[in-house]
Write a structure and sequence with these properties.
62 residues, 2 strands, mainly alpha
Amino acid sequence: MVSSELEMRVAQNCHGYGPRYNLGLINSITFGSESCNSCVHYVKEKCTEGLFDEIREIIRLN
């Protein structure tokens, strides 16, 4: 299982990130926070674009 902190860091650095919900539907808890869980390309805890592992590795190296 991936930590929520790592999901947020990956999403913030992902060129393929696309918000799942428009701003009118986001509740006050998640408003403004990017995370893999709020990306349209993240389905069943997996990036359908194949970007998660690549970006995680870049973050790890920096």
